[in-house]
Amino acid sequence: MARTKYIFVTGGVVSSLGKGLTAASLGTLLENRGLRVSLMKFDPYLNVDPGTMNPFQHGEVYVLDDGAETDLDLGHYERFTDGKLTRANSVTSGQIYQQVLENERQGKYLGQPVQVIPHVTDEIKRRIRQVGEQTPVDVVIVEIGGTTGDIEGLPVLEAVRQMGQEMGAGNTLFLHVTLVPYIRVAGEIKTKPTQQSVAKLREIGIMPRVLVCRSEKPISQDVRRKIALYCNVPEDAVIEELDVQTSIYEVPVMLQRESLDELVCRCLHLGVPPARMTDWAAMLERIRRPTHSVRIAVVGKYIGLQDAYKSVYEAITHGGIANDARVEIVRVDAETIEKQGAERQLAGVDGILVPGGFGNRGIEGKIQAARFAREKQVPYLGLCLGMQIATIEFARNVCGLKDAHSTEFEPKTPHPVICLIEEQKNIKRLGGTMRLGGQPCKLTPGTRAQALYGAETVRERHRHRYEFNNDYRERMQREGFVLAGLTPDGELVEIIELEKHPFFIASQFHPEFQSKPHRAHPLFRGFIEAALKRKSA
Ligand code: GLN
Fold first, then answer.
1. What tens digit of pLDDT does each residue of 332-384 get?
2. Which DSSP letter does residue 9 get?
3. Which helix (H) or strand (E) holds 468?
4. Which position among 384, 405, 441, 464 bears the catalytic label?
5. Annotation says 419 is catalytic
6. Annotation marks residue 512 as catalytic
7. 300: closest CA among 314, 310, 291?
């Protein structure tokens, strides 16, 4: 078998350049050329994983099938490609140091002083190679988090520099994503920041072969020539990546127009036919010219931040694509509902979604939103905490269980309809200790959820500690609370829905992690369909 090739994606000038999107889009193009691709992210921070980080600072925690809690860029990778990702595809400096220190304690370094070079860099290289070795792939795209010049990124850059040296130019490729800013008052595009960040890379021995230039204005031939000359790359290696107009799913097509994939294949001696993007282009056409439109409220507490519910927003969009509809997402702060009431915030929306979350803040507002959806017959989709919320609401207001709650928020509640199961009770340590990752769920025949999935058993991803309390099953079922999905042993409630409602479904798992733009998740497809129906009624 041919050797696995590695593409290293670095970022320059500023963060939030969309490096992850660029890497994922290149993945789409290479996959549609018939190559087997895997993407990995290397985050230079010292957390072992982002599982314990605040979504306000870090954005959503994306969960893989094997239960790894990862950076949200892994979500892009899975939405843009079909490559299977595991824990190995998401590495942090924290993990590297943890391993190196563990090796040291076990005497594996035979009494040598333990140093960044070679011990840390060797461990980094081992982790990167592991991705190419675990399942055979043609190309591994390695995105390196952070910005060139960050102190904490230095060991990673040194490690990939060494890989480039060891494997050679035909087997490795350095792609630098950089910012080419437009200075409005001067009416000019500036190349100096790009020159400087490339110079920074050269200082540590990395010569980027491809420059992907993020820009809000088209980059003229003159400017391209200048960048090429000063950054030491051929002119055709200056790739323009403009801000997208309607959808992030335009990026692969945009980069294809710039011949990025062709260049990459040429540099890596990959003789494969051009990317077949007809299906992808057809999907884009549907995004650009939708027949319908619909308004969906997302009621959460990290509403001000674009990235905190990334996969949820994407999955809603996918539901729209599947229904030929443009979805306007109305972000509603749960605490505002507490102050102003649900009616004021939610009147006029066609669907209500309550996503996952932790902690007390905004809980009563979310409960009011669920009540509003139930009483006004507005389609409701609850995700993880959104299911627990719906359960609490139904227990309180339909079953008359006064002060019903989750023990997460009210340990002394008289009706703990959501509580910890035995295994979770003794866990004190944070980090990877929740119920995590893909697990089977058996769907109840005759339910709406089962009809949407069109399957008997499905596999969905979890990230939570609390569960539906089985002591309340009968009491609630009597009132029309349907257990639409259970673990195969029947022990845990995975999906609930309501009988007397056009669409009220909530899951203990996170369906948003498995939705793709051309393959919307069934629950999101059904939710948007129901919202459209309500709108036209
Ligand atoms: N806080 C809840 C739990 O731990 C819900 C978690 C979530 O929504 N991801 O069970």
1. 999 999 999 999 999 999 999 999 998 889 999 999 999 999 999 999 999 99
2. E
3. strand 466-468
4. 384
5. no
6. yes
7. 310
